[in-house]
Amino acid sequence: MATVVPIAYQNTSASVPDWLNKGDNAWQMISATLVGMQSVPGLVILYGSIVKKKWAVNSAFMALYAFAAVLICWVTWAYKMSFGDKLLPFWGKAGPALGQKFLIRQARLPATTQYYDSGAVETAVIAPFYPMASMVYFQFVFAAICLILIAGSLLGRMNIRAWMLFVPLWLTFSYTVGAFSLWGGGFLFHWGVMDYSGGYVIHLSSGIAGFTAAYWVGPRMKKDRERFPPNNVLLMLAGAGLLWMGWAGFNGGDPYTANIDSSIAVLNTNICAATSLLVWTCLDVIFFKKPSVIGAVQGMITGLVCITPGAGLVQGWAAIVMGILSGSIPWYTMMVVHKRWKLLQKIDDTLGVFHTHAVAGLLGGTLTGIFAEPTLCALFLPVTNSRGAVYGGSGGVQVLKQLAGACFIIGWNVVMTSIICVVISLVIPLRMPEEELLIGDDAVHGEEAYALWGDGEKYDSSKHGWYSDETTTPPKPPSGVTQIV
């Protein structure tokens, strides 16, 4: 992604002005919808299915709430903080993004690229020929999924009221900083750090923030940590499938136009994801003697995350290499390093978001600095002359830039997430009370995921006869009643 500069467009009676590229606009709205479906229903289904049965409703609702809350915050103030006028080198000025008389009409091709002087570095303005409304919505779904990914670290014990406060605060003081710094014309963007579609802005930040928040919230109940089986593996796969297919919009929409770059990004995304899934599965078979379905999903996710910062910047062969590494390195950190490092064991990261997103995101950003192809870099950002290390020239410097950019994202998220959690804890406990932790969904929401009797009510002997949901054999009937077999 790159800096977007809105230009005022005078109202006209024509709903389809001459400059509007209807194809690009359609692709952008489709891409945004695909990314939105990754969250709702994708991660809603995945979270609700991969957790223990008593946490299905709470886990799904955390994702659903975040999606809605982020949208209102985004159009009210956060979009401009991410893509508006500069307030600080890493932050934009807050403001509403509701007035649709502002439309984006800029050229992307090098021959006609317009330039925006930020006062520091002359940088290409990259934006397509379509309304600002399309861009606001497209960027919203990225912000929303970032918060939902953080929830994956906190499932099964975070106070839902604390989560309701956490979402707008973290969006405002953490996400907008990363988005502006790397995509909105901030200092990392001008310096040439490449993050094609969110390996740093979305995945590294969510992995680090989730891990940090998990430290402050505290762990699940001991018996939940020891045994936390998914309540529906097949439904989990449905959610994972929506996540995978939706990534076509996640990476394919980031050139802001339906061009060569978007096609390459979609193909590379699927190549890397498939390779990573197969590598992870093979490692499970080699070391654990059985292929794990959950493991395959983890490998799929790490492949999708790893390719994201370089999806439209690398060749197909590099996508395969990145898939091999994303299927093995996060596997090693999760299956080996995690079990030997006391810090990782102490912090209860419910779904291992640190490994699947922080480790894979950092890996992808670094590999982008190694494999980014110069011609594709020119399509993405014409004036930086960026190139991967394997192509010689200044490629070695690019790797250092990628690592420095990652350090900023990591540091900011550790500090800001910690401050947010401490502030919230002064108002409301971050962790559920013990009685809610023991019962789960019914105590927190007054609802349960699955109907076990008749119309879904709890077992009641006055309604459901003599059988107990705790037994498999019928008790003796009351005196005077004849039991018919």
TrEMBL record:
<dbReference type="InterPro" id="IPR001905">
    <property type="entry name" value="Ammonium_transpt"/>
</dbReference>
<feature type="transmembrane region" description="Helical">
    <location>
        <begin position="60"/>
        <end position="79"/>
    </location>
</feature>
<dbReference type="InterPro" id="IPR018047">
    <property type="entry name" value="Ammonium_transpt_CS"/>
</dbReference>
<dbReference type="GO" id="GO:0008519">
    <property type="term" value="F:ammonium channel activity"/>
</dbReference>
<feature type="transmembrane region" description="Helical">
    <location>
        <begin position="200"/>
        <end position="218"/>
    </location>
</feature>
<feature type="transmembrane region" description="Helical">
    <location>
        <begin position="162"/>
        <end position="188"/>
    </location>
</feature>
<protein>
    <recommendedName>
        <fullName>Ammonium transporter</fullName>
    </recommendedName>
</protein>
<dbReference type="GO" id="GO:0005886">
    <property type="term" value="C:plasma membrane"/>
</dbReference>
<feature type="region of interest" description="Disordered">
    <location>
        <begin position="464"/>
        <end position="485"/>
    </location>
</feature>
<dbReference type="InterPro" id="IPR029020">
    <property type="entry name" value="Ammonium/urea_transptr"/>
</dbReference>
<feature type="transmembrane region" description="Helical">
    <location>
        <begin position="403"/>
        <end position="428"/>
    </location>
</feature>
<feature type="transmembrane region" description="Helical">
    <location>
        <begin position="293"/>
        <end position="311"/>
    </location>
</feature>
<feature type="transmembrane region" description="Helical">
    <location>
        <begin position="317"/>
        <end position="337"/>
    </location>
</feature>
<keyword id="KW-1133">Transmembrane helix</keyword>
<keyword id="KW-0472">Membrane</keyword>
<feature type="transmembrane region" description="Helical">
    <location>
        <begin position="230"/>
        <end position="250"/>
    </location>
</feature>
<keyword id="KW-0813">Transport</keyword>
<comment type="similarity">
    <text>Belongs to the ammonia transporter channel (TC 1.A.11.2) family.</text>
</comment>
<feature type="transmembrane region" description="Helical">
    <location>
        <begin position="136"/>
        <end position="155"/>
    </location>
</feature>
<dbReference type="Pfam" id="PF00909">
    <property type="entry name" value="Ammonium_transp"/>
</dbReference>
<feature type="transmembrane region" description="Helical">
    <location>
        <begin position="358"/>
        <end position="383"/>
    </location>
</feature>
<keyword id="KW-0812">Transmembrane</keyword>
<keyword id="KW-0924">Ammonia transport</keyword>
<feature type="domain" description="Ammonium transporter AmtB-like">
    <location>
        <begin position="26"/>
        <end position="450"/>
    </location>
</feature>
<feature type="transmembrane region" description="Helical">
    <location>
        <begin position="26"/>
        <end position="48"/>
    </location>
</feature>
<dbReference type="InterPro" id="IPR024041">
    <property type="entry name" value="NH4_transpt_AmtB-like_dom"/>
</dbReference>
<feature type="transmembrane region" description="Helical">
    <location>
        <begin position="262"/>
        <end position="286"/>
    </location>
</feature>
